Amino acid sequence: MGLPGSGKTTLSKLLSKKLGSDIFNADQIRKKLNDWDFSDEGRIRQAKRMRDYCDNEIKKNKKKFIIADFIC
Hints:
Helices cover 58% and strands 11% of the residues. It has 3 helices and 2 strands, in the order H-E-H-H-E. The chain has helices at residues 8-19, 26-33, 40-61, and strands spanning 22-25, 66-69. Strands 1-2 form a two-stranded parallel sheet. The protein is globular, with a radius of gyration of 12 Å.
């Protein structure tokens, strides 16, 4: 997590290769769901959504690591 332009996605991609893990990028998830609400409510919804995506991927594919790439 970090501020915009701080290298989160770049680091996520490199780390993903090392760990053999999947990545969930918040911008891609927001685009997929067309949810660009950055109010307090929208950010909380997005954080929970990111958690749910990661939890579901771990359970579904028995992954040890999942990378959640988003601003916090």
